[in-house]
Amino acid sequence: MENRVELVRAIPVALLRVFAVVVLGEVARRHEYDSSGSLQLQYDFVIIGGGSAGSALASRLSEVASWQVLLLEAGDAPPPESYVPGFHQLLLHGDADWRYFTEPERDVYRGFTGQRIPYPRGRVLGGSSVLNSLFYVRGNRRDFDNWEAMGNPGWSYEDVLPYFRKMEDFRGQTNPFVARRLGRGGPVVVERKEFRTRVLGGFLRAGTQLGYRPVDPSDPDQVGFAAVELTTKDGVRWSTADGYLRPATERPNLHVLLNAHVTRILFNSNKRAVGVRFKHRDQMKKVYVRREVILSAGSIGSPQILMLSGVGPSYHLGSLGIPVVGDVPGVGQNLNDHPYLTGLAWTIKNDTSFNILDTAQPSVIFEYIHRRKGLLSTPISIEGHAWPLAAEGDPLWPEVQMGFTPFTIGNDFGLITQRVLGIDRNFYNEYYSGLGGVQGFSLGPILSRPKSRGNVTLATTNPFHAPRIVTNYFSHPDDIRVFLRGMKFAFEIANTPALRDDFGARFYDKILPGCEPYIPLSDAYLECYARTLTGTIYHPAGTCKMGPPTDPMAVVDHRLRVRGVNGLRVVDASIMPLITSGNINAPTIMIGEKAADMIKWDWGAS
């Protein structure tokens, strides 16, 4: 086994890229998106950030042939290895990742190196849709109805549903109720997961034994158990770069500039955004706009660029000597994220889940090469979702989402998971050593709508320095209460006959280091466990909150226009006033689609 681990450890990214190109052919060959030779001095619209929302927005705005659109992306084109779903964890901390870290926090992350966690964000065309685990979840209908109730007309579930349908190309069968509301033929291909472990069947049967129905992940009422659906096309990752930008770059009015790091937005004396300053190929450049600058740099990048440009809390900007263009206190505040506990582990019978290191087996590689199926056709990640009834408030608006993973963190001897998650090496070796190579599964609660709020602030005025990210997980007392309910629900699932009897599921009950003073599985022990091993599931949102004029922390209005200035919008996950109850890539793309129609309407284009 040690030789096998060392063999996998030694595989360089360069070989993975060669493998991807050879196996996937034209699909994985780098598309020539870059329009450096055609750069103009002025455009109708300049979009900052080519991620999930920015790619959709650029594609849709360029449908108006008379508009000149420029998309500035700090990263490069998607690397070939990103197209293989099973390689997704190998992209984290690489060239396509901004490689952010949170600030150390005292009451959480106790099992992580430096008591902080990696915070991956896509620095690549297609953004985090190139790095993510490919899960497609719209969210609960109540998420969007609540957005409207918070003072944002036009954002109810029925208002956003046409944009979900417009963007989707759903392939597969589902129940008739959901099928009527799914889109076909759109840019975002959604497939049912082809490879499934045997133990996933046990997880889904466990849901039935607990009284829950099987649901589609995009069911508007969510409550139930589901196998994941993925943004793949015939077993290959399908990012927004592929779905939106590949076809759109044929249009002469859309220019895409890669490796263009925006340093600030330019304003005139009337506080109108008139251009953008950026670094491209070691040169500082400027480009100007006739209509609008649109910021789609994500929940970390968008507030950072706003503050560097003088739009943000005046006290914070003043402390760094940045001239204030617009005093907008909410910029960088209201960071919503989904805390996720990955550590709860159960061992099971052999040959019923999978071993992470099997992805390097010749038979697995052969199956992917010839059939685009098997382990490499799926991310090394969650395989099933569960949304239990809420204990408080509306029972059909789940408080937690349960992620079912058909392996444990200890399965791969720390080769991949320990590094990717940022768990302290000594802690990992002490706690997970008994799980190396052992088959099992993990059940991890994901807090759907946390009340705790983090923030993003500037560390320096240097635009090439990472900002400070503080998550403040569990700082609101209600969050840990709900999270403990989620942890207890995990034990309910694992204790059903479908998993306990059929698969011999046994909880890995080794005492967690640091939690020795507490009675095992008591509330105090579970809270200690949560504060030690809870990290992120990579869903930052809300840092440029959408809201009415009466909300002092709102950054944009319901048409996504930035307060206090003119000619500037934000279009990405940062505008969410409250995070959705599920994985956020789908609603982020929807925001890009809806924003494109609002902009067309505002500027008189059909």
What does this structure look like?
- The chain has 606 residues and is an alpha/beta fold.
- Strands 1, 2, 11, 12, 13, 14 and 26 form a 7-stranded mixed β-sheet that branches.
- The longest helix has 18 residues, at 477-494.
- The protein is globular.
Q: What is the overall pLDDT average?
A: 94
Could you name the ranges where pLDDT drops below 50 across 5 or more consecutive residues?
1-10
Alpha carbon gyration radius: 23 Å
- Report helical residue fraction: 25-40%
Number of helices: 18
Q: Write down the overall geometry.
A: globular
Query: Which structural class matches the secondary elements?
Result: alpha/beta
Give the terminus-to-terminus CA distance.
62 Å
Largest sheet: 7 strands, mixed
Number of strands: 26
Proportion of residues in extended strands: 15-25%
Describe, in short, the structure shown.
The protein is of the alpha/beta class and 606 residues long. It is 28% helix and 18% strand. Strands 1, 2, 11, 12, 13, 14 and 26 form a 7-stranded mixed β-sheet that branches. A 6-stranded antiparallel β-sheet has the order 7-19-20-21-18-24.
How are the SSEs placed, and which strands pair?
Blueprint: H1 2-9, H2 13-24, E1 42-48, H3 52-61, E2 69-72, H4 88-91, E3 100-101, E4 118-119, H5 141-149, H6 157-167, E5 168-171, H7 176-179, E6 188-192, H8 198-209, E7 224-227, E8 229-230, E9 232-233, E10 236-237, H9 240-248, E11 254-257, E12 260-267, E13 273-280, E14 283-295, H10 298-308, E15 311-312, H11 314-319, E16 326-327, E17 339-341, E18 345-347, H12 362-371, E19 384-387, E20 400-405, H13 417-421, H14 425-432, E21 440-447, E22 455-457, E23 468-470, H15 477-494, H16 497-500, E24 506-507, H17 523-533, E25 534-536, E26 568-570, H18 585-602
Parallel strand pairs: 1-2, 1-14, 2-11, 5-6, 14-26, 15-16
Antiparallel strand pairs: 3-4, 6-8, 7-19, 9-10, 12-13, 13-14, 17-25, 18-21, 18-24, 19-20, 20-21, 22-23
Helix pairs in contact: 3-9, 3-18, 6-18, 15-17
